[in-house]
Structures are given as structure tokens and as C-alpha cells.
Structures
1.
Amino acid sequence: MTPAGHQLPRTVLDDLAAGGGGPAALELLHDAQHSKNLLLVRALVILTHRVDHPDRAAVEAAYHLVGGLSRAQRRAAWGHPPVAAWAFGTASLLSRGERAGAYPGLLAAVAAAAAVHARADADLDVPLDPAMPGRLNLPGLGTLRVARTATRARVRCAGGRAEVRCAGERIEIGYDHPPDHRWRPFPALRATHGGLPLRLLLDTGTWRHVPVAVDAHPIAGSVRDPGRWQHRLRAAWLLLTDEHRTLAEEVSVALSALVPLVAPRNGVRSGTFHHGFGAVAMSLPPDSRCAAVTLAHEIQHLKLAALTDLFPLVEPGPDDSFYAPWRPDPRPLEGLLHGAYAHLGVAGFWRRQRHVERDRTARHHAEVEFVRWTRAAARTVRVLTAQPRLTPVGRHLVDGMAPVLDRWAREPVASAAADDAGRLLATHRAHWDRERTEARPA
């Protein structure tokens, strides 16, 4: 029997190509990602058996325990963004025979956390990550400090709590257990407005087990003041739900985790993880508008990454690189497509926001940003249109973005805003050209 594959209706693809999609599209993409996660976890179990990994028995027991939970509970366990990213990275390592760098035993910690959330009975052998001595991270739940010499823990779960036996100690924990000097539950940011909920878990511990380079996303060591994040995200959520409803609906459906990043010297650092669907990474934004537009930017990347798992967008080919009006470095073709799609979302945010602002300075800034990113994305789409390596789905995306951007470019704006946007674009290009000239050998 061959299971049915995932299908994306043409109308949904059309909506995505125009930069939207709405909650219905995000639900379809989310379902496809769940299937991908199931395949990755199953592959991980098979690979630990194939390479006779010492954590094989713990991994198999954890897999069967989560398999016995409800569908929603399984989906929450395997679909927790850092778990999905870890499963991809670990399966990749094991498939290449790189056993030393892999930590498949995290699956047992995933199962323990899932059992606590499900209030299920469980008795699990949980191997500890040798790269993180003295820590037991329970994905989606919290971090427990244990003896640095410990290599394994026994976790017995019942009634929503767990007893951890490790290095001769017994420690009781749970999702409702108050934090102390050893147990730190992962904080969650919550906001509800206009009937739309937002819940983002700050699970920094589990991300540290992901065996993939995260140099572009320097994760903050801890969140010392979740209240600052809560205040900033709640204000952003009020803005999104009141003035950017479709975007808010997409965010509510898709995002479940926030990865706090080390703040850069200037501005905000943000990103997404291709194999961690549902997570957004960002440094603490300075205000609610910045937080809101960052979500508008990153939800576009998240949609396109999920779509790429269903359909290739670019054919393999030479390592060509291109100018991008939002980056200091040249971009490969697929990166250029991602950037254009993300900045279509940014332009759309400022297009709506300029009608919301009452303060003259804020309204001028919104208009400048609208014009700047509309022009930048439109010029990039024209470059993309000429590329023969786009697949039919990739070309459909580019063909869908072009008329939206052309229509926005014809909307009336204040001449001062148009002039300022033009200067910003010209300055960026001049700097980029100068850097290329100076880097060219004499």
C-alpha cells in the first residue's frame, strides 16, 4: 500500500506566489512538515540500529513510547522546532557514518518530556549529551542541572511529573514545578488579542543539541528577563492582529518557538531554520514595530523553506552569485529568490503600516520603507525572471510576485519619501560596487 502524498492546490500556490497564503496555506505546509518529521525520526531509529549506536535501545524505547501517544501529542513532540532540526542533523550525521558527532539519545529526552505533557506513565533510560556535561535538557519542558560526571539518567514519569535519578540523586520535576537552582522550565511568551493566540516557547537548551552550524544565528546563552520579551511581543501582537490580520493569522498558525539571539551592534538580527519549521530567531527588537516587521520578514522565509521541501524551486547549476539590495554580500540564486520573497512581505507590511501611523515622522518612515523594499524586490524579481535555472514552481513564484510589486510601485507616495528611498537604494548599490572593485585583484 502506498500512502497518499501531500497536495498543494493551485489556488494555494497562487496565493503563496503573491506573498500571502493565509492560515489555510500554513496549515497545509505544517501538515507536510509533520510528515517530514515522522520520516526523519523513523530514519534516525533505523540508522542507530544500522550503525549499532550505543544509545540504540534507548532510542527505540523512546520511539515506541511516543508512538503510543495521541496524534496531537506525537505531532507536538516530533514537531517541536529544535527537535525537528536536531532530527535532520543527527540523521544526516549517522547516514554519513559520523557517529562521534551525533547525539541520537536526545530522542529519549523528547519522549520523557512528551510523557510529562501527556500525563502518561513512562520509565526511560536517557543518555546525556557528552558535549554538554551536567545538563539534562527536556525538549519543550526545561533544563535540569545534574552531576557533570553523569552519563545517563533514569526518568520515571507519572501524572504530569517526573522523577529523575542521576548519579545517586533523585530530583522531581514537571512543567508546573516551580524553578529552583537546578530546574529551569523553558519560559513561554503568550499573547491573545482579537481572538488570535500567540505562544512562543524560548527553548534555548534543545537548540544546543542541533548538530548544524548556527554561526549565522548566535543563540543567547539564556533569557535573564523574559518579561522584556513578553512586553515587546505583546505590543507587536496587538499591532499585527489589529492592522495586519492575515499576517497575524499566519504567525499564529505557524510559529511555536522563539530563539533569542545575541544582539548585534546595530539593528536587529533575525533568521529562520530550514529544518526547524515553526521557529523564529531574533535579537530583542527595540520596539513593537520592529518586532512586527521582523515577524513579517521571517514568516516569508518559513513559508518558502517549507514549500522547497515539497517542490524544488531552482535547478542545480553553476555557483552564480547576484547583487541583493538588502545584503552586503553576493547571493546564490536560491538565496536571491528567498530574499525577494521575504522583502515582498516586508514591503507589504509597510504598505499597510503607512496608513496606520498618525505621527508625521513615523508615517514618513513607513512610506520610505514601503517604497524602498517594493523597488528592491521588484528589481530583484526582474533579475530572477531572466534566470533559466528556475523550476516551473520557482518560475510560478516569480511570476506571481511581479504583478503585485508592479501594482504597489504605481501607488501614490509623498515625493520626499520616494526621494529618500531612492537615496538609500543608491547608497547601498554604490557601497556594494565599491567593495567589489576594491576586492578585485589588480
Note: The two ends are 64 Å apart (CA to CA).
2.
Amino acid sequence: MSTLDKVTVDLIVVLGTSTMPIHQVMRLSRGAIIELDATEADEVKILANNMPIASGVVLVDRNRIAVEVKQMLPRSPATR
């Protein structure tokens, strides 16, 4: 088990996405608001090292934000 303690995994939680022309991206500044194609009630995608592994929902409790895993995605034969 001590070998696993040294393994790091990048986790990404994706609530939504947005597409915009590069000229709009270049004009973004601090405080800019980017509309997403999702709402706070939608499921989020959970990625490990950029590979989808699960879906879940966002939980907000006062000033803490968390993600509850609702479904693990099946692994492809190539990743086993």
C-alpha cells in the first residue's frame, strides 16, 4: 500500500462548458462572467487524469462546496 501513497491523480469536476470566439476570450478580465451550458442542479462530470470516471452532483453547505459521486462510469477494456 505504501506504493499507492506516492501516486498522484489530477481530479477535475466539470459543471458545464462554453464556446466563444477568440476575440471574446482575449477581452476577458478579472470578474468576467462566462455563461455555461448547465445549471447548478445539473450533474457534473468527474475526470481523473483527463479521463471520465464518474458523474455526480454539487453540494453546497454554507461556505463549503463538495461533489457527491452518483455513478461510476464503466471502464473501457483498454484501461483495465
Note: The beta strands are 11-14, 44-48, 51-61, 64-72.
3.
Amino acid sequence: MRQLKHPGEGEEPRRIVRSLETGGSLRLRLSEGADLLTGLTDALIARGITDAGLQLLAGDFSAMQYLTGQPDASGQRVATYGAPTPLAGPVRLIGGNCILGRDAAGRPLLHCHAVVVDREGRIHGGHLPPKVCRLGPAGVTALVTAIGGAGFQVAYDAETNYDIFQPAGEQAA
């Protein structure tokens, strides 16, 4: 098994735990033409949901891009994102997961990973960037679990040398 060693000092224990409350669940559908991340974020914020876990259940894209990791040549990190991989539609969503939290400045931020099948039947997967994942005729359906009492916010992580989502204290959902 390959093991990766991050460049910074790790905290022990590595797990950060916060108590949270379930703020209820809902099924959300976005229609054709919407950008996945912008559409989901706007729909959740409009419902007063600021922190949530999402499961992408079904859908398709007319065009999209995704990112995967690659070794960081600079040595400052173990890995970094590679160049975007564009896919022309139709692209079928197999499934995905997202976290809604906040960026370092407190603005809403949705972080998503998904697995899709392109029009030739090849499987792809990775991180979905904003403003480049346009929904196709089937749109997308997501199961949303709102959370309260704690949330996620981007903060610097000394071990990975990245700004990453970390559990944050008391937040309203």
C-alpha cells in the first residue's frame, strides 16, 4: 500500500469533532440549463440552509469539467489539482457527494465530487469546479441533509499546506 506523507506537522489526533444537529432533509431538483454548483448553492441559501451534506442521486450534463489530483511538482504539497478535463454532453451522472459550508471570508461554498459516464460509455470522476457543469435535459436530483450546531468553513491546514474545509463551531442551518 502506498502511503503519502504531507509536508507539514500533523495534529494528533487528526480527527476534529463537533456536535451537530440534523436540520431536516429535502429532495431538490434543478432543471436543464442550470450550473450545478451555483444552482444548488442558490437554492439552499434561498431556503435558509447554510450548512449541509448533499447526495447527488441522478441527472445529466450538457457539458461539464472535472478535476483530479496529481503529484505537486513544487514539493509544497503531496498533491494538487491537475488541468480540467472537459466532457461534452450528454454526460450521465452516476452519483456524487457535496458539502455546503463557507469559504474563509464566510461566503457560501459548495464542494462536490461526482462520478459520471460520458457519451462513449467511459467512467470519469473527480472534483467539480463551479460555473462549468451545465445541466442537461434530465437536470439533477439531490438529497439534502441540513445541519446545525456546527458547520464547515475553509481554513488553513498546516499538515497539508492547503486551505481546506474544517468543522466550525456553532452555526445556524
Note: The first helix runs from residue 36 to 46.
4.
Amino acid sequence: MDAYLTLAEDVLRRVRRPLSAHQILRSAYEHGMAPPHLRGLTQHKTLGARLSEDILHQREASRFYRTAPGRFLLRELADDETIPEELRRPIVARRRRRNLAQKRSLAFHRSELENARRGLYAIDTSAILNLIEHGSFHYATSAPQRGLDEVVVWAFMLVIRSGCVLTYRQGHYRENRDTFMHRRTIGFYTPVIDDDLSLFERTDHGIVSSGVKALATDLDLQERELWPLLSERSRLEAFLYPESHLSSDLLAVVAFSCPDWLDPISKRLAINDLEWLDLRSPPNHCEDFDPWSQAILSEARHLAMASG
């Protein structure tokens, strides 16, 4: 167990009541329990992430459990009758339905992308980021409601581990396009909207964080303490432009390097037949994939092979 978890265990065993990560650290410093090598302004976020990771990875074997969102207690205290009964029952995270946020979707005019083309699907990444940096973008009314010359930007998250990419089949949960329904998909995607732009993410308009939120919801990794870890392992890799006569969308491909301890599991109606696809050899039956996945397969294979 690392220093943060050891510290949390010692504090919770002493106070014998649920605490947030911030309260655990405050108590540790007040009682001289914090080791001198723990430094930094965001220690509570690191501690929260470590606790969430341990609970997610170890499950019932974890030394910790949540009594409420963001509040932790030692599992060894669950049988202690001096602690109120309602605090001795671990909460089960409520699964949230993810409705695609599509209003005021980040968009470009087609003419702004033509000079950035680098092949059939490829778009120069630096050119797109330059457009964002200089404010050469606008917001479509929504992803489904856009002008004929508007190209909407989607964050498309690839989950990659040891030469494989995580795939699933689309359900009625969020897709009604015939060319996507029941097809195999290699990513978790969402439109990038105006709310994704923040003071700290202006270089990419929050594309990576938007994708992380979609991934966290679809795979039930909703504890906010985990998001910094998800973000640290996610990187914007490429922009692809699978233009067709049906729609015009710019896909921002973000690769999430999935750690070995994370076992993605979902029982959502949208996430059917969840499985790893080994991309170290070209996949057979490409026609089984939805149009966006077909456009991204080559880039995904390159990233997967680089991962091992």
C-alpha cells in the first residue's frame, strides 16, 4: 500500500468515522501523522484518486469503501456496532444514463478545413489546434442541427492496452443511425460543446476532458477522484475527417492508455458485447464496424501496436 493509502488507513482507524480526502489530510497534519515527503497543493486530489483506484481495482478486497460520494471509511469497521448502521453499508454507485450533450456543438466551416487535409481522412492536427487557438471556430445549434457547410467536432476515445483496443456494439440507447446501429465500434464518442472550453484547456477546447467524461460515464468510472488519472493517460493523437453525403463530422481521436488493473465492465444497453480487439494483425470483416470506426481503424492499429 502506498504512502497515501497508509496515511488514510491510519487516520480513519483513529477517527472511526467517514471522511473526505481533504478531511483525512487535514486530520493527518493536525495530529502530526503526515510523512514529510508528502508535498503539494493538490494532495487531497491525489489521495482521493488513490482511494478510488484502490476501491475500483480491489473491489471487496479493498481496505476502504464509500459511505457516500467522496467519503471513505475502513472496511474493517463495517462490523463495528458502535458505528451507525447506515455508515456500515458501502454505497453502490448509481449508474447514470449518458445523453449526448449536443447543444452548441463546436464546429468549423468546411472551407476552414480544406487547407488542412492531408489524405483521404487525415487532417493536420497543428492546423486544427491553430484554428482553435485563434478563435476560428463557432458553435452549431446542435450536432444534429447544423448548416450544410458546418463540420461538428467529436471527441473519439480509444481505449488501448497491449496492442488491443476496446470495442462494443451500439444499441438503441444513443444511436439511431442505420449505419451505426448494431455495428462494432472501437471508441467512446461525444460532441465537443461550448461548456467544454475552460481557462485551462483552451489549446484543445477541452477535447480531451470531454472524451474523458464520456469514457468515465460509459464505463462507470464516474468517481471524480479518478478523472485526473484518466486524463493523465489520455492524449489527443489525431484529427480525422470521414466526410460523407450524410453528414460532416471532424473526429478528434484521443487515446487512453488503459492500465492493467482496470477491467472495463459495463452492463448498459448501449454497451453490448464489450471485448478487446487485438490490432497487432489487421482485423477481418472491416464491414462489421461502423463508418467512423472503419475510418479510424488504421490510426487505432498504429497506436495499439505502439502500446505493445
Note: The first strand starts at residue 64 and ends at 68.
